[in-house]
Amino acid sequence: xxxxxxxxxxxxxxxxxxxxxxxxxxxxxxxxxxxxxxxxxxxxxxxxxxxxxxxxxxxxxxxxxxxxxxxxxxxxxxxxxxxxxxxxxxxxxxxxxxxxxxxxxxxxxxxxxxxxxxxxxxxxxxxxxxxxxxxxxxxxxxxxxxxxxxxxxxxxxxxxxxxxxxxxxxxxxxxxxxxxxxxxxxxxxxxxxxxxxxxxxxxxxxxxxxxxxxxxxxxxxxxxxxxxxxxxxxxxxxxxxxxxxxxxxxxxxxxxxxxxxxxxxxxxxxxxxxxxxxxxxxxxxxxxxxxxxxxxxxxxxxxxxxxxxxxxxxxxxxxxxxxxxxxxxxxxxxxxxxxxxxxxxxxxxxxxxxxxxxxxxxxxxxxxxxxxxxxxxxxxxxxxxxxxxxxxxxxxxxxxxxxxxxxxxxxxxxxxxxxxxxxxxxxxxxxxxxxxxxxxxxxxxxxxxxxxxxxxxxxxxxxxxxxxxxxxxxxxxxxxxxxxxxxxxxxxxxxxxxxxxxxxxxxxxxxxxxxxxxxxxxxxxxxxxxxxxxxxxxxxxxxxxxxxxxxxxxxxxxxxxxxxxxx
Amino acid sequence: xxxxxxxxxxxxxxxxxxxxxxxxxxxxxxxxxxxxxxxxxxxxxxxxxxxxxxxxxxxxxxxxxxxxxxxxxxxxxxxxxxxxxxxxxxxxxxxxxxxxxxxxxxxxxxxxxxxxxxxxxxxxxxxxxxxxxxxxxxxxxxxxxxxxxxxxxxxxxxxxxxxxxxxxxxxxxxxxxxxxxxxxxxxxxxxxxxxxxxxxxxxxxxxxxxxxxxxxxxxxxxxxxxxxxxxxxxxxxxxxxxxxxxxxxxxxxxxxxxxxxxxxxxxxxxxxxxxxxxxxxxxxxxxxxxxxxxxxxxxxxxxxxxxxxxxxxxxxxxxxxxxxxxxxxxxxxx
Amino acid sequence: xxxxxxxxxxxxxxxxxxxxxxxxxxxxxxxxxxxxxxxxxxxxxxxxxxxxxxxxxxxxxxxxxxxxxxxxxxxxxxxxxxxxxxxxxxxxxxxxxxxxxxxxxxxxxxxxxxxxxxxxxxxxxxxxxxxxxxxxxxxxxxxxxxxxxxxxxxxxxxxxxxxxxxxxxxxxxxxxxxxxxxxxxxxxxxxxxxxxxxxxxxxxxxxxxxxxxxxxxxxxxxxxxxxxxxxxxxxxxxxxxxxxxxxxxxxxxxxxxxxxxxxxxxxxxxxxxxxxxxxxxxxxxxxxxxxxxxxxxxx
Lengths: 567, 334, 299
Description:
Strand content of chain C: under 5%
Oligomer: heterotrimer
CATH superfamily of chain C: MetI-like
Order of helices and strands of chain C: HHHHHHHHHH
Distance between the termini of chain C: 29 Å
Radius of gyration of chain C: 23 Å
Largest interface: B-C, 74 and 73 residues
Structural class of chain A: alpha+beta
Strand content of chain A: 15-25%
Number of helices of chain A: 17
């Protein structure tokens, strides 16, 4: 058999042709992605809340909601991660509904009384509401929900983080009256209860055990979970007997839409293409690289909400060198130029965070925002003062040790998307100028989870905390939560900070709360305990034929019970 | 991801085909061998898991997104017996497996068998369709271009070499962009409909076709010069007949034997393809499970893959006997 | 050994030793000169080797030089392959990436072949029990999904160049081991080996002068082809996020980082991908050329 030069040339030509083809075809489509848009997120809670929409609602239709992450369990009482809360909102109702400014309005609870000492919350429940399996919603049901959440079998985490420090017990006073007793006053309690994490589930359904409840939970909500095809989608159908919308919903009856296909599309290009092609009517988390295209597409409406909480930030290990020194922390923040890094990596699709809590959090103040704007000279001076002198290869040294920063992150599938990685590399290059040798250390997921809580294993790491109230600051910075995994990861020990926050939780006087929360933000910002990156946001891309979608403010959950499909 | 066996030495990669039709003894020996393989694979999983750093309890409780508390971690460790000594855990592990109990997924709290049976369908479909497609591409290509002059044969072999060498994920991305995003011929979102199957299957099939083509072509060329081909020609058979009826059969043998290995390799490729095309399937399940130290799922999927491999090899051996007439006559010794 | 496959395909010398005619045709092939395609492949590979050893000869840029102002620029005179998300020149990174990729390719192939040689020779020469045991082991390794093994190894040893090398090496070893075993079995029964024994040569001499060189001859070709394949699989690992830590410019990692931008910034994936494909093609071409020379076939 003869082999000739033809075979080789043919192969090379084929390669070039394929390359040229893909170049030509991809150059035709897709617009420039470098146009940086300015997201409108300046105000607290802006972007959230029910909106009044033009047009007459139309009944019927099935929509496809494309999202990036699949929950591991549909019962939000179990675990407690973001994907669960977004979908749970569609089939569970909570006791109260939160407003953008932190107030709450009635939902499954018609009204409530708070005792003077703030230790007792008595809820008067709505009458005539049934779970979709026929069980009546009453005080016994509420009690069953709290007990299930606290049961170790359920494996609830987020709920326990909120409840364990404050919860004392629950009493059924009569059929529609239930009282929750607290160990100490906690003014954000109602906001906490408004999250879908605390949605009310049917006692009969919960009694089946967590295995069954993960797959087919039952609530009172506007939609019902029909089927969960793992790795693919969740099929939700309308609850025709729905009669318990929150007081702030536009639609006070059953949902307009017949069904929702909650589809998992983790790949960003696929997800965005689905929206563009109409295969999906609405997608969650528009990929940053497609943000420009989404903005300029007349068929796509964008809705953006900056979540309350701390958002995404870089934890600095305050308990060990080099970051046990305030000057070094300040220098790091000054040199990192995080706002520019975020802007560039996410191409303007993500807002930047420059303060202890995000701008979407109640009681946020911008007085202490951006206390350490980019200033390389200042950073270098601080490092000199701290005893870190210039050394070999541009890396600073002190007492024979180099200024290395071990930055660990999880490299599991989908854990750290490329844009996030770009962000870290941008920061790495920026702090290098000041003499920091930041080493990026990817770790498999399970290993990362473990090392993330062992101060000796890292100097810096990324994390995020979303909560409806400023009390996140207490969780991540108090001595009480010092040893709790994923709570006080920065290992901050500041008694004044803890006292300030507890005092804020103890009072219901808004002016007093404002003062105390602001003080807490000041302490954190001045101490540069961590480096803020960007807040969590709900960024929805909605086809213009789908109307009436809004985002609620406790966890940025999308609300689809008011939505309708224009025919 | 077993070695991409280069074509020229395919001879050495092949398992010796059966000398005669399978008698009872051989069958029993094979089954025992298969059990040993399964046990070894499971043990390997267990050992690797033990060596992996990281606390499975955290992963069980949902990872950092779930913010587990100290007491929860302790309770979880107790409940799953993670604090017990290694040998005890291994004993439990093996005895459970032996009774067919694959356990419950740490992450999803569902029985592993349920999880796998939900996801195995699309992956199996993908694998078998891809392999079939690879043959459908490779055989005609070989038939049409082998031994028919320099230009044709070098075009054919050039094409094969190209596809055998192209990274599957690159190919997948290019196909996805060109045919789904730009031309819109295929749906963008994955799914289990037939038209969502073509691009992923093609992504896996093309490199495999390239490789199978190379192997088959080499054998075909050799076959054209073999005594049986020459004698067929002298008996008056047309060139086409010689090629189709005599040489092709002979040429397909190495390819068939390699199919067993190929299916194993395709499973690894399926992981990449499922991720690129957002297709449900075992690939994603496996990657997630390893990353989150969900040992029951990892073991379950590994068992399944090993089982598939063993079964396919058995079938291939049978097929070999059918296809190669020389082996059907009472055997020659090794 | 199988009768359906022509043992000559493996490149083992015909019984009786290398015939004069084969030597003659090898000579004439050399005299005839190298085909242009092969020359092109060698040239390309040489370029890659230069890029691996002295990248600064081929590019003046800094592969780690972040410049946010330049991010995501399409190919131009200043940046022939465009820039990535952090403003680094893709061309510079592809050149510097050659080192990582070649290192991994060579390393993985070396590990794989080394392991395979050990297993294969032991199986071929060790007698029935050893052979059976090793065969069983190879069965297990074959049935164990290679990707899974790689995932585990990364979980245990952490991601990085050495883990990639080990993972890809171990995953590719079984296939080579089988081949080598087959080779050794064949060579064992060859006439010249029997002759050597009959002449009373010590077993070690037979082993090292007759069996091993002839059994390993096809390894040369295997190595060339294997390097290409190893790079592809190593970059598959990077694609899954299990490869070297950023900001290292490894081709597979660059593909992974660029895949989200495939519609808007196509240059991020095209050039690293083309580098991998071209490298594999060139290695494969060279390998086939060597195969022809060894088998003594005429062009």
